[in-house]
Amino acid sequence: xxxxxxxxxxxxxxxxxxxxxxxxxxxxxxxxxxxxxxxxxxxxxxxxxxxxxxxxxxxxxxxxxxxxxxxxxxxxxxxxxxxxxxxxxxxxxxxxxxxxxxxxxxxxxxxxxxxxxxxxxxxxxxxxxxxxxxxxxxxxxxxxxxxxxxxxxxxxxxxxxxxxxxxxxxxxxxxxxxxxxxxxxxxxxxxxxxxxxxxxxxxxxxxxxxxxxxxxxxxxxxxxxxxxxxxxxxxxxxxxxxxxxxxxxxxxx
Length: 253
Ligand SMILES: Nc1ncnc2c1ncn2[C@@H]1O[C@H](COP(=O)(O)OP(=O)(O)OP(=O)(O)O)[C@@H](O)[C@H]1O
Known about the structure:
Elements: E1 3-12, E2 24-32, E3 36-40, H1 47-55, E4 61-66, E5 69-70, E6 78-81, H2 94-104, H3 110-123, H4 139-151, E7 157-161, H5 169-186, E8 190-193, H6 197-203, E9 206-211, E10 215-221, H7 235-252
Parallel strand pairs: 3-8, 3-9, 6-7, 7-8
Antiparallel strand pairs: 1-2, 1-4, 4-5, 9-10
The structure holds adenosine-5'-triphosphate.
Adenosine-5'-triphosphate binds at residues 14, 16, 23, 41, 43-49.
């Protein structure tokens, strides 16, 4: 398995106050191609800051390499999907939303643009919705379009910051299933932040628990066989391990 992401000595401070503490301090992490890495951790431990650094949205100290290349700015090799439903241009149709970043990145042939949009709409189960505008879609459908739009760029890493946190439980379960199916089909590498231990167990092939300043408290392979349900062998043990660790974090802060 090849290393797709290598982080060494990552330190981040927003320097918003003269004596402000580092948000991330000397973090080291390697992610292999095809990993689905879920990140848990108490509020404020630096999860979003970490993936913003990987996305190239932040300056940082240390080294972040994606496929051997230093991250210095955003790039189409790393796409980010957020929790917010408003990640799409409201004045563009679903199809045009998917095609816009492709055009910016040099694909101008109309037939090619249509093919890519068609394939990715099909991938997220929205073949019939290419001509719809974002305001005509539900929250779950908008998140599917955001995923399709990112995948269309054929990224090396998909960064997801609680993408399903604002969805109702049923839609969330459905999107988790879909995301897993897509990850398997595309052999995608995903880094996924969540506050939900169940979600981490359902999706993750590996689960990290971060504590203050991005310290890695747990880094575990998730060996519970997919599809994961609370009745799966090993589920209860894993859930308890992460739950206890999160409570411990809460008490320490
Ligand atoms: N732009 C910024 N300027 C200054 N401080 C910031 C900025 N962004 C985040 N922080 C601070 O960095 C710390 C970590 O924030 P971050 O959003 O990375 O945490 P998180 O683990 O993702 O939290 P949550 O689970 O609540 O989303 C917090 O103390 C936050 O206030």
